[in-house]
Each structure stands twice: as C-alpha cells, then as structure tokens.
Specification:
single chain, alpha+beta, Aminopeptidase, 7-stranded mixed beta sheet
Length: 442
C-alpha cells in the first residue's frame, strides 16, 4: 500500500461515524434528541410511557384500564417494527419492582424466619417482588382483544430475544401470565372433523408442523372415518386451536408414515382397530412458547378415544427424530456419515444399517443433557410418561425425514398403567426403553 492509498483509507475511516453505545430507556427518556437506530424520539417515548402508566393507574377501574390499553393497541397495529420494539423496551425496563421495597421486605423476611411472623413476612416479600409489569399485562387482558394481542406480541418479539437481552424480563413475565391464563382447566377439547368450519380446517393446513399437508385431499384423508383429530381451544381465542393431535386408528403399531398419509388407501376397519397411533402433534402459537399443553392433551384424547372405541388397547406414536442427524454429525465418523448418505441402498442385513440403528438407539435411549433426553420430541413424550418402544427403518422417505434422521422414525408407547413409573425413572435420569431398544444398545 503506497502513501496515497494509506491516507485515502485513513480519511475514509475518519469520515465514518463513530459507533454509538446503546442507550437504555431511562437514558432516552431524559434525552432531547434521538440517536441513530432509535425509532421513537425521547418526546414520543415519554408520551408512550405516560400512556402505559395510565393503563395501570390504580385510580381507574379494570374496564377503564382495558379501554386505555385498547387505544394503545390501535397505535401498535399501525406502528413500524422499530416503534413496536421501543414499546417492548418500555414495558420491559420501566415496569420493574421497586428495588428498595424488595430489599426491605427481604430483610424483614430473613429476620422473621423461624418466628411466628415468618408467614406474614413471606407474604409481604412476595408482594414486593411482583412487578408493575404484571398489572400492565392484566389490564391488557381486560380488553376483549387483549389476550390475542399479547400472544401475537410475544410471538413477534421472539426473534429479538437473542440479540437484545433487555426484553427477557417482559418475555418471562408474559410466559408466567400465559401459564395462568391458559391453564388446562380453562381449555376445551374439541374434535376437528371434515364437517368442521372450513376456516378451522384451514388452520390445520396452516399450522401442521410434522408432516406438511399437501392438498385438500390430503387433509380429507387425515379427517377420514378411521382418523381422529383433536385440539385444545381457549374461550378468548375462538376458532384458534392452541395445539392439535392427529390420530390413526389401526390394528397394530405403525412402522411407516407412508400408509398413514396415503390418500388412495381405503379407511381401516374400525371394528378391528385395537391401536391408536398419534402421528402428528403441532403447537400453533409461537407466543405461547413455554406453556405446556401436550401432557393434558394426550391424556384427554386417550380418554375420549377409549370411550368411543372400547376395543382400543394400545396407544403409541409414530414420531420423527429431528435431532438425530445433527447429533450423528458431531459423534459418528466421517466414513459412517458418508456411507449413510446412501442409506436407501442398504440391505436388511447390511452392517451399516445395523450400525445406524444402534447409534439411533443410543441417541434416544441413553444420551441425556441436564438429566433430560437430547431430542426435543423425545423430551416431550418421555416427559409425559411414555417409553421408547421401537425404531423403524425407512419409515419417513421424505426429504425432510432423510434430513432429520436418514428416514428413521420411532414409536413411543403410552401405557396408562406405567406412566407414573416411567416419569419417576426419567426423574432419576433413566430413560424408559423397551427390550428391542435394549438389544440394540447391548
């Protein structure tokens, strides 16, 4: 680099604006001018903060607080993503518990431990730690559209959590409130059939997360006479399933997804059906991440199915193994990974086929992280009391199945008599597995 080029580069660097430190909402509220990357001006931010405070004003009723929340919701719907993000920051940073009150209540509680005043001191401490943010969310929920608004807001906020930790307080508070508002005691189990409103059937197509629905013929097949589909619904989100499960009624545990999704296949004979296969479970609301419905959904569905079909004796899943291939990429040799890329060419007795099954059995049957199964789907079913029953070769021949697990799928067995026992074993970091899986691990 010659002298002229060196000078040109240095001058260009000098002309570039210096990086600006991110300011907190407290700093922005006291400022006069906004900096780059800040959407709301200090004046506009103070105005929005005043509107939020007016919503939680203790001198107004819940109804009036909800009405004021509705006015802010109207602004939000037409606001830009950057302006919405500034509102999230205000809700997260400006509505916190009073540190002095928390500290004083904590000291009082610590001094009262072991005395007759302990219970009363604990109550005061719990009240002191409750943030005004919780009251703010409650006031939004008083509006007829408040809960759907908050659920959508949290869904929109999710991608920002990884890059802006300041939003975590609001996210955690919303998860806590949603866990209360969406308690299974408030949910209604509904069967979804081909006779359901078209808008509801369209929701199945939109939200199906395991096996994409390809056409109306496909969805009609999944709602045929030998199938059942159930969803959990909340009264404040009418017509919107929170989670739904698709079930096939057959006479044995399914080993492949292909016949279950075959639109040309004749319906199974319900008089011979002894087995219910849960082959797809989909959560629909990103904003309800962390709120668990699956355990209660499966229990309720099993009860409903058994009532309708007393002959049913076996309840099992046919599940994907979404984390298997990624885990193999970190632990198996390059030679094995290259060979498994040609998995379709492996014969029934091929050593490489047995090796893949053994690796999959190890992944599902013995690998834990923080005492929980590595695979997300395994965590769900095993956490509900199921056991790893059987691995199925070439069970999902789709591109997605190959990408996730070289086409392998797994059955998890729900034995109503052993659910508690299986949960107890998992709590001791012992994954419940069937003899067939033990054989692959030996």
């Amino acid at each position: 680099m010659n002298t002229r080029e060196w000078l040109t580069e240095r001058v260009a660097r000098l002309r570039q604006p210096a990086p600006v430190a991110v300011r907190s909402t407290q700093e922005r509220l006291k400022a006069r001018l906004r900096q780059r990357e800040e959407a709301l001006s200090p004046r506009a931010m103070r105005q929005k903060l005043d509107e939020l405070k007016a919503i939680v004003d203790s001198l107004v009723s819940e109804v009036e607080g909800g009405r004021r929340a509705g006015a802010l919701m109207d602004w939000y719907h037409s606001a830009s993503p950057a302006h919405r993000r500034d509102l999230w920051l205000l809700m997260s940073e400006r509505f916190v518990a009073d540190p002095a009150q928390v500290k004083a209540a904590q000291a009082t509680f610590s001094a009262a431990v072991g005395t007759p005043d302990e219970a009363a001191a604990e109550v005061l401490y719990r009240r002191a730690t409750v943030s005004p943010r919780r009251r703010l969310l409650q006031r939004f929920s008083a509006h007829p559209d408040g809960i759907p608004f908050l659920v959508n807001l949290r869904a929109e906020m999710q991608p920002q959590l990884k890059v802006d930790k300041r939003l975590l307080a609001l996210d955690v508070e919303m998860e806590y409130m949603f866990s209360t508002w969406f308690d299974v005691g408030f949910l209604e189990l509904q069967r979804i059939s081909w006779d359901s409103p078209a808008s509801l059937v369209e929701k199945l197509i939109k939200y199906e997360a395991v096996h994409d629905i390809r056409s109306w013929d496909d969805v009609k097949n999944r709602l045929d006479s030998d199938r059942r589909c159930y969803g959990f619904f909340h009264p404040r989100l009418p017509g919107e399933p929170l989670i739904f499960v698709e079930v096939a009624l057959v006479n044995e545990i399914a080993s492949s997804i292909t016949p279950l999704l075959d639109e040309a296949a004749a319906p199974a004979d319900l008089d011979r059906a002894t087995t219910a296969i849960f082959y797809s479970i989909s959560n629909t609301q990103t904003g309800l991440r962390g709120v668990s419905f699956g355990d209660s959904l499966i229990k309720r569905v099993v009860e409903s199915l058994h009532e309708e079909f007393p002959r049913l004796k076996t309840f099992a899943t046919l599940s994907p193994i979404p984390g298997l291939r990624g885990w193999l990429g970190k632990h198996a040799s390059a030679e094995l990974l290259e060979a498994w890329d040609q998995v379709a060419e492996l014969g029934e007795r091929a050593p490489l086929r047995l090796a893949l099954m053994q690796w999959a059995a190890r992944y599902l049957g013995s690998e834990l992280q923080d005492g929980k199964p590595l695979d997300a789907v395994a965590r769900f079913h095993l956490g509900n009391g199921a056991r790893v029953e059987r691995l199925n070769w070439a069970a999902d021949p789709s591109a997605k199945g190959f990408k996730q697990s070289y086409g392998l799928m797994v059955n998890y067995l729900y034995d109503p008599k052993k659910l508690d026992k299986n949960r107890a074993a998992l709590a001791q970091s012992k994954i419940p597995i069937a003899p067939a899986i033990k054989d692959l691990l030996s």
